[in-house]
Design brief:
By secondary structure, this protein is mainly alpha-helical. Helices cover 97% and strands 0% of the residues. The protein is rod-shaped and about 105 Å long. Keywords: Lysosome, Membrane.
Amino acid sequence: MEEQEMQIKVKKVTDKFTESMYVLANEPSVALYRLQEHVRRSLPELAQHKADMQNWEEQSQGSIYTVEYALLLRV
């Protein structure tokens, strides 16, 4: 009877260990997949935002140049 109980306990421990190893082995790949999925969804919006910011920067630089030039003419 003790032998059978020991075998049951050993089986439970090995099953839990196997399950834990399986989770640990696969968790990073799932995390990397989710990260890749997020980047693929976010990247087009970020690229558009970057392009918009560059346009605004160019417009701002043009406006700043115009204002500085106007101030120089007044002096």
